[in-house]
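Quick one: Lipoprotein from Uliginosibacterium flavum, structure tokens please.
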Amino acid sequence: MKRLFCLLVLPAAALLTGCENNAASYVIDNTKDHSISLVREQSFAWVGPVEQRFVVSRFPECQRRYSIDSATTTMVKIDLYEVRPMLYAAQQGSAWYALGTEECVLQKFKEPPPVIPPGRLIGSFEKQADGKLVFTPIKP
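--- reply ---
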């Protein structure tokens, strides 16, 4: 029985190798109630791209999750800019997004913003060498 269990479980564990379920957050105003988070999920390593979502939160007023362009398992960093209080811009490669925390909204730019950078760079979402997703703030 133990041998049968090993024969079934080990291949199943190998199937999950390479999956990704990662998240990192930029905490605004030093309160966990106001944040922008990036979530990356991939069910199986060999099946398609990694799904990416921004979660824009300002409790108790709102919280919304938005799918953004999918990515590969190799993370391309996402820079986060503060345009003004409660309005942010995110850039991953050639894709740009506007994120508003006042009403928890997100909109993808059809073209890059007219002014680059669109505001003050506050940090980046990126993967560490160990595979963990982090938000790395810019040091003042």
